[in-house]
Amino acid sequence: MARYLLRRLNLFLATSLVLFAVLFMVTSQFPVEQRFALTGIQSPSAEQITQIEEDYKLNSGKFNQFIAYLQQRLGGNLGISATSQRPVADELASVLPASFELAAVAGFLALAFGLPLGILASLSRHKVTQHTIMAITLTGYSIPVFWLGLTLSLWFGVQLGWLPISGRLNLLYEIEPVTGFILIDTLISSSPYSTSAFLDALLHIILPAVTLAVLPFTVVVRITRAAMISIMEQTYIKAAEARGLHTSRIVLRHALPNALIPVIKNLGLMLGTFASYAIVVEVIFSWPGVGAWLVSGIYQRDYTAIQGGVLAVALIIIFLSIMIEVLHTTMNPLSRKELYASN
């Protein structure tokens, strides 16, 4: 297992190196002066120009420039945002928690509703129930996320007025950020209106989280159903039924843990799609996450913000994909068998 983890670490490092190389080549193609594209400083002084050329080795060959670029980025120097004149690293630190919070709530909703429906679709003997559930998932998978987000905003936000359609918290509440996760910060706040602020934050996250959860929800339902149908025909399940174990115990103790293995694998494969959907959702609902910040940087031609946003999102996707693969290998006995055989 240690050798396998070392190989996964090497894969992460190699993929990250390729990512940095692509960003370095793209940076040199930006239609602006290279010093501005690398640092975000619009009108550098003579001293700053000298420092930039020394830091990024601009008077050397491309290979030396790439090594210097790599050193700067790995050292945390992502440049200065041309729009806000703040370090890009600081801006990323302020917007990433909002994206993580939205993704976590959406993922929880997808699993909380997708797993039971997938189990129900696999165990139900009624064709109507099965076809209804599968029709719902197919519809949810086919609906464009931007249309769904706008429709939910129109129905529940504008026409019914039940839910807010933008932002994370009402501006009337002044909550001191501690963790960056607004649901947690409102709970731990010492403010007298912390409970009201938490409920308001909860209402704000419902529409964007539901919109973002639709795609993984449909995948969870379909994969869970297929896995459960296959597992319930296995010999050990038949033996458990013959011993007189209750169906709920068989499902929860024996079938569901094995059905989660393909679910986790498929969720890992769709991380890139999930991230692209999250960017669209953040823009629609004015959610102040890294996606909306990145799109704003693109519109304003903030080249350092674009580089920082793409780098952060890509590294997170690569890291999570590898971690999910490691988790899948740990949970799947067949994968472990192949792993040990290869060693």
UniProtKB/TrEMBL annotation:
GO terms for cellular component: plasma membrane. InterPro entries: MetI-like, MetI-like_sf. One of its GO terms (molecular function) is dipeptide transmembrane transporter activity. Its main location: membrane. CDD domains: TM_PBP2. The chain crosses the membrane at residues 102-123, 135-158, 201-223, 274-299, 305-327. Keywords: Cell membrane, Membrane, Transmembrane, Transmembrane helix, Transport. It comes from the Bacteria. The keyword Ion transport does not apply. It is found in: Cell membrane. Residues 96-328 form the ABC transmembrane type-1 domain. It is a multi-pass membrane protein. Belongs to the binding-protein-dependent transport system permease family. OppBC subfamily. This is Binding-protein-dependent transport systems inner membrane component.
